[in-house]
Amino acid sequence: MTIALLVIDFQKGLVATDPLPGDAASVSANVRELTQRARAARVPVIFVQHEDDTLVPGSEAWQIADAAQAQDRDYFVSKRTPDSYLNTALGATLTQLAIQHVVICGYASEFCVDTTTRRAAANGFTVTLVADAHTTHDPRQAARHGGHDPRASQSDAVEHAQLRPAHHRRANSGYHVLRSVTRHAYCPSRRASSAA
User: Fold this and answer.
1) How many independent structural domains does the chain possess?
2) Which distant-in-sequence residues (6+ apart) come within 8 Å of 190 by Cβ?
3) Which one of 4, 7, 89, 167 is at 20 to 30 Å from 73 when CA atoms are compared?
4) Which InterPro entries match (predicted)?
């Protein structure tokens, strides 16, 4: 199954400017880890950037946050609504790359991340939402959507090439929730085929 990593609205004006969103440091580290591992596995990294009056294309606030380590070889999609598919090039990009499975992280949990997760599932993609790699400024929503596993350990990071298709499936939702970047984002090829 062909996989892509979608990094939604992880922009300087949203995640790297005071006041910082919930768990900003750990979420930034997890997004960085996801992008690094995706590239090492030759998984396409697609950055979705929101545009509006405060996130003007080309402005400092509009730029991808440094933690995500955007590279020229990555793909970039601009949007103006919470839906990363609506009036954007995302659908065409995923089709061009023959993507069947999207792994989603970024900002804001209850808006753009949620809307894009639901839309991807409705469009027939296998979807994995990485619980400890998305955030928001609303502390109530962060607690509700985060579902972080306090037992996850940085030393448990798996250093293999393939994204795991599913770890926890939400009943009838069409998407999966990955509880921890470091424990579950990548797995050995022998386990990947049995987990699919």
Assistant:
1) 1
2) none
3) 167
4) Isochorismatase-like_dom, Isochorismatase-like_hydrls, Isochorismatase-like_sf
